[in-house]
Amino acid sequence: MSSTPEVKTNERNPHHTQRILVVDDSDSNRALLVRRMTGLGYEVESADSGPNALEHLRGTSHFDLVLLDIIMPGMSGLEVLKQIREDFSAIRLPVIMVSALDESSSIAEALNLGANDYITKPVDAIVARARIRTHLKLKEAEEAIHRMDAMSGLGNRLYFSERLDEAFARCRSTELGIFTVVVFGLDRYYMITESLGPDASEELARQIADRLKHNVRQSDTIARLGDNEFAILIEAAPDSPTVLAVNDFLQNGLHGPFQIHGTEITGSASAGVACYVADYERAEHVLRDAGIARNRAKDLGGNRLMAFHDRMHTDSTRLLQTESELRRGLQRDELHVFYQPIISALTGRVTGFEALVRWIHPERGLVGPGEFIPLAEATGLIVPLGEYVLEAVCKQLTRWDHTPLGSLFVAVNVSARQFANPDSIERIKKIIGSYASVVPRLKMEITESTVMHDVEHSTRTLRHFNDIGISISIDDFGTGYSSLALLKSLPISTLKIDRSFVRDLSENSDDRAIISAILALSRQLKLSVVAEGIETESQREFLSNVECDEFQGFYFSPPLAIEDLEKLVHRSLDQESGPGNSPIFANWKSSGNAASA
Q: Which pLDDT value is given to residue 473?
């Protein structure tokens, strides 16, 4: 079993000798106490006055307990105690008052001021030893509790940092010293805990901790640093059998199912590794770099272990800067909604749009979604960002009332984090409720993998949307392995074929077969199908031949800023003539409108 906090004398640091400060104005009393405490094995310093005692305590020396005389000239022991309690709690620095037998009122006042205990003069060595040991053990027990994560029973960040500092100091004292830090977390952790309820996090943490304790050596240190951040300190090189065994456990031992409130969850982990080298100036930097490597593993799709290298630090700094700028961008309206047309395969007319967020940075210009959307998902910013887009779309649909665009729908993406969180769903409903007139023209897009994660929750949530008149589209269809029975049970109207199947249509017969099967399935279920990511005429032609309902992609138009879209509509209307023409621009591609956008 690995190292976690326990209540033992000096367990936290077996090399530390407990230090006591003796404060007494009497030279003989002070010398006697120092001699007796030293004989008991403590390291002792002394002070002959209150100001001298406070100078000791506020200096660089660390003390575990104070023996403080009550009656002293100038600054009394009670005044010193008041000052001590302003700087140190009774847990952090126990104070035992030393008093004469006739000082009962002063003893009572001292206890009220925060003294932990008292002994009387002349000091009985056996009584003093018992009381000092008691309070030092209580101090260590309280500190151990403060170093423990209550949910998992593992050490917390403070505990891990102390052990890391000790390992770092040992390595600095010898050229042969080395240690490795591994930081990891479960993939899809927040999706799991948010969908299974508030108690799921605690139960999942306990089960992870239990597996760690049985798969990591007792001499190694394990801790829970945050909700989904665990750390292991191993005093061995990264290529040692010990570290390799831990790596194997992280990649395989967390795959086995977790049972959370009767639901079976299959896990995978993203982990980062950093090793002590002489270039490190501070212990916390090793932990920082292991965390950076873990984030890189998550960015690459998870379920992997990454070793830290210097370039990661540069990348991490850039990501932190981008995250900070994105938060400011949301506050300063730098995020804008663009609209990509969805085209009827039968008529060539625009039937609606997908709302896509774009970031127009004041210095960098247009920032691609591939740079900031994954970052928003990783940091949780995707939730306020999604709500921002939804409200912007609702406002825009309201402005389009009684205009040529007033009959078109707009599809808005709902992220996995939003969909899994009941509070986010309620906020979405509240936003939609403020724009009731746009509901018939609003469509929600949820990815197939999000829906498949928790079918019961998905069905219930989608029905709520359906009940208030919102159409539902399943995005990235074909990648989540939905069953026919599932599709039949969901209140959906549209499937969007994932662009990965469209991209290689010309060369890949499997993709053509998959698309044909999806279309056959959708016709049986009376669902419309949109193919996204169309970029070539050959792709459009195949999809038209197999009777796909709607098209979307750069072949027809890129996402357009609202100003460009409205100009395009007006130009299209100017080109049309005759009483039978639709008010929405027909023959989108052949008219040359897309190319001029």
A: 94
SS (H, E, C) 382-410: HHHHHHHHHHHHHHHHHHCCCCCCCCCEE
DSSP letters for 188-230: THHHHHHHH-TTHHHHHHHHHHHHHHTTS-TTSEEEEEETTEE
Q: What residues have CB less than 8 Å from 242, skipping those under 6 apart?
A: 217, 220, 234, 236
Judged on CB neighbours under 10 Å (0-12, 13-18, 19+), 579 is: exposed
Cα Dmax for the chain? 115
The amino acid that residue 241 corresponds to is: P
**What's 2's DSSP letter?**
-
- Tokens coding 511: 């993709």
CB 549 within 8 A of CB 528: yes
Output phi, psi for 82, to 5 deg.
-55, -45
Contacts of 385 (CB under 8 A, 6+ apart): 330, 335, 357, 376
> Of 369, 412, 419, nearest to 393 (Cα)?
412
Instruction: Say if CB 85 and CB 96 are below 8 A apart.
Output: no
pLDDT at 254 over 50: yes
- What is the DSSP-derived secondary structure letter of residue 122? S
**First and final C-alpha spacing in the chain:** 65
Are 285 and 279 within 8 A, CB to CB?
Answer: no
Q: What distances in angstroms separate CA 193 from CA 158, 206, 274, one per listed residue? A: 25, 13, 28
- Among 441, 491, 500, 439, which residue's Cα sits nearest to residue 466? 491
Pairing, β 494-497 against β 528-531: parallel
DSSP reduced 3-state for 418: helix
Q: Give this prediction's pTM.
A: 0.56
Task: Report residue 481: phi and psi, to 5°.
Answer: 60, 45
Classify the phi-psi angles of 508: left when phi > 0, otherwise alpha if psi is within -120 to 50, otherwise beta: beta
State how far the Cα of 442 lies from the Cα of 149, in Å rounded to an integer.
Answer: 45
Question: In sequence order, what are the residues at sequence separation of 6 or more whose Cβ sits closer than 8 angstroms to the Cβ of residue 125?
Answer: 36
Of the candidates 165, 117, 119, which has an alpha carbon nearest to the alpha carbon of residue 15? 165
Distance of CA 596 to the CA centre of its chain: 43
Beta bridge partners of 353: 341, 410
Q: How many residues does the chain have?
A: 597
Residue 429 makes CB contacts below 8 A (sequence gap 6+) with 464, 468
Using one digit for the tens of pLDDT, what is the confidence trace for 336-368?
999 999 999 988 888 999 999 999 999 989 888
Query: CB neighbours of 220 closer than 8 A, spacing ≥ 6?
Result: 2, 3, 232, 233, 234, 235, 242, 246
